[in-house]
Amino acid sequence: MTTAAYNPAAKFDIKITEVEFRKTATRTLMARIYQPQGTGPFPVLLDLHGGAWNNKDRNANAPMDEAVAKSGVLVVAIDMTLAPEAPYPASALDASYGIRWLKSKAIEWNGDASTLGVLGSSSGGHMAQLLGMRPNDARYNAIPLPGAPGITTRVAYIATRSPISDPFARFKQAEKMKREHMIKNSTTFFNPWESIHEGNPQEMLDRKEKVELPPMLIMQGGLDENVIPPIQEKFSASYRSAGGECQYELYEGSSHEWVAEPSAATTRAQDMVKTFIAQQLKAGRKAI
């Protein structure tokens, strides 16, 4: 399969549809598909939503998803299970299944599965980092994909906005700011509590855990009091020291969720994601 040449400045009409992603014991998880209308096949991007592991769904990052899709990328945003019903590592299982599911389905929506990258925001960025760094983790890959057992969870690249790269440092920041809801989000999701260290991308690097290091983009708000810039600066430096490529971009004057509303910074972020995708495609990055 030859992927259509990707131009981040291109303009496509898109078709938006929704399909059932998978069922849990209590909920039907859905996927929202942003499909460019053109010859294709198009590069593929899976969006993992934020919400501090406890809130939100596939619609959380819709402005970014739509903007990227209109440049000629098949974008699919999925629901993930939420705490307290589903503490760590449940959403990592959803993300792993989502990667494999989208690889198996991409051709139906005129996408090239071999190009699949992941976009993650806040706690979705945490999931993107965990899956990108641990694509072969048996716990994360525990939900079998019917009819396609050989598909891997490997991704071509990771693009993030305000990722929770160090959940424990974020928790300590919440304590410092006396943000009770943020504290509760962490203690609810990381149950047992020790898992906040086990499932911690920064600490994985600090432990010199054997991980994969796909190219990564981190976009960080300078006024973010949730995940503060020093957390991202440390993680970016650690990722590069471990041998990975990490592009860290600070958005001065922007808070944690700045891309949710139209602004010059939001447009800059959308353009940056598209440019990053173009760079990875040009470099021949593959999700195999």
Topology at a glance:
Layout: E1 14-23, E2 28-36, E3 44-48, H1 62-69, E4 74-78, H2 90-105, E5 117-121, H3 123-133, E6 158-161, H4 167-177, H5 180-189, H6 195-198, H7 201-206, E7 216-221, H8 229-241, E8 246-251, H9 264-282
Parallel strand pairs: 3-4, 3-5, 5-6, 6-7, 7-8
Antiparallel strand pairs: 1-2, 2-4
Helix pairs in contact: 2-3, 4-5
Order of helices and strands: EEEHEHEHEHHHHEHEH
Outline = globular
The CATH architecture would be: 3-Layer(aba) Sandwich
Q: Per CATH, what is the topology?
A: Rossmann fold
Number of strands: 8
How many structural domains does the protein architecture include?
Answer: 1
Radius of gyration, taken over Cα atoms and rounded to an integer in Å:
17 Å
Gap between N and C termini: 14 Å
The helical percent reads 25-40%
Overall mean pLDDT score? 96
CATH class: Alpha Beta
Quick structural gist:
The chain is an alpha/beta fold and 288 residues long.
Describe it:
The chain is α/β, with parallel strands linked by helices. It has a single domain (14-282), classed as Alpha/Beta hydrolase fold, catalytic domain (Rossmann fold), CATH 3.40.50.1820. Helix content is 34%, strand content 17%. The chain is built from 9 helices and 8 strands. The chain has an 8-stranded mixed sheet, sandwiched between helices. Helix 2 (90-105) crosses helix 3 and helix 4 (167-177) runs antiparallel to helix 5 (180-189). It is globular, with a radius of gyration of 17 Å. The mean pLDDT is 96.
